Amino acid sequence: MSLSFAPATSEAWPLHVLSPDKVDAWLAQADDTTRRWVQASGFDGAIGAALMIPGPEGAPCAALVGHGTPGERARLRFPLAAAVPRLAPGIYRIAGGGIDHAALANECLGWLLSCYTFTRYRRGATDAPGAELVAPDGIDSARIEILAEAEAMTRDLINIPPADMGPAALENAARAVQETFDASISVIAGDALIEQNFPMIHAVGRAGPQAPRLIDMRWGETGPLVTLVGKGVCFDTGGLNLKPGSSMGLMKKDMGGAANVLGLAQAIMALELPVRLRVLIPAVENSVSSNSFRPQDILTSRKGMTVEVNNTDAEGRLVLADALALACEEKPDLLISMATLTGAARVAVGPDIAPFFTDDDPLAAALEQAARAAADPVWRLPFHTPYEAMIEPGIADLDNAPSGGMAGAITAALFLRRFVEPGTRYAHLDIYGWQPVAAPGRSKGGLGQGSRAILGALESVLEL
């Protein structure tokens, strides 16, 4: 699917973006026929309102869309996108100054994202163009298209069911990105994970129908080293601590961290940022079989620390731990992990916000600022050091699932931090990766979350 701007054409219909307080002024300069048409139609500038204006021969000659009040716009990431589905198929150009210039790029991104559909499993479905937009002057249209395409890929990967998106398919998705951008890739799979000292990735994935693997992609030869680590649990039954059916239904999205880092990597490469990029994805399926890892097993990690397994459903932090340890062996300038890691994060901030953890205050500030600019909300949660005792079981160095149910997102993040070398510039994002209810620019289903904030932050903190 291509989410791109329409080519500029003189036949594009003018699109007037009006807030409620601007409707009367616009009507005052309209001709009598248009004024009567708009008034009879009840157009009031509300969010999502859309009205085609007929020309002398009845065919559309322009359109109005409502932009709502400031308070209404604050409730949506992409206010303009609310009206896009109500517009007739055709090509539009934004006329006048109805959108503040600071918001224009995000509104255009929202328009492109509103055209995303997932049709892989629908017979006869087509990607027939609907309402297309000519890129307005003054925006970086190429960048917006790159962000839209990266988001579309992330959504596609999450939306594909696990029968078609197991570890092998996730590897193929990474290889497709690698081939497009002339990156390099290596994959360690099956028992080779034990031989090359990735014991926890192997333990989690060994019961799956496809061999577990570690995907390692590199791109770029100069600049700071940026390493992205994404959780690639392609389906999570919970293992021997089996999830109830109500909790298992969305577990195709448990590779959302991997999907997000692949989308982010695609954007970084397409934008040709001056970095050395590394992407690490431990790809597994947490399945139930005779060789599933067990509660009370003690695993020895790549870093040498031992981990007592007190819940096989806390598997994501295990596979990430080995990947983080590998990442730190070459001292990256910036290390980011992304994972659909804990239900506790959803309880804390809900599905719309990506909580993040970092000890680096300038990085945190950059993430927060970039998130606001990119309409990609994040919220900082603490690496609360006093909770370290909660992840120390006594019988082993670490506990993968502390009892008590308190501070689940924080203890998971603290667990990951144990595998990051001190002094490493590091942030972890505990994402949801799913849009429960459709919203403007965000279809129900798989969702990129936090990636645009990370992109803006790394451009800032690394002074690219």
Automatic annotation (TrEMBL):
Pfam families per the UniProt record, alphabetical: Peptidase_M17, Peptidase_M17_N_1
UniProt cross-references to CDD domains, sorted A to Z: Peptidase_M17
Keywords assigned: Aminopeptidase, Hydrolase, Manganese, Protease
Organism domain of life: Bacteria
A GO CC annotation given for this chain: cytoplasm
Domain Cytosol aminopeptidase: 311-318
Gene3D superfamilies: Leucine Aminopeptidase, subunit E, domain 1, Zn peptidases
GO molecular function ontology, one term from the record: manganese ion binding
InterPro entries reported for this sequence: Leucine_aapep/pepB, Macro_dom-like, Peptidase_M17_C, Peptidase_M17_N_1
Keyword Hydrolase appears in the UniProt entry: yes
Family: Belongs to the peptidase M17 family.
GO biological process per UniProt: proteolysis
Signal peptide start-end: none
Protein name: Leucyl aminopeptidase
Organism, scientific name: Citreimonas salinaria
Keyword Cell division attributed: no
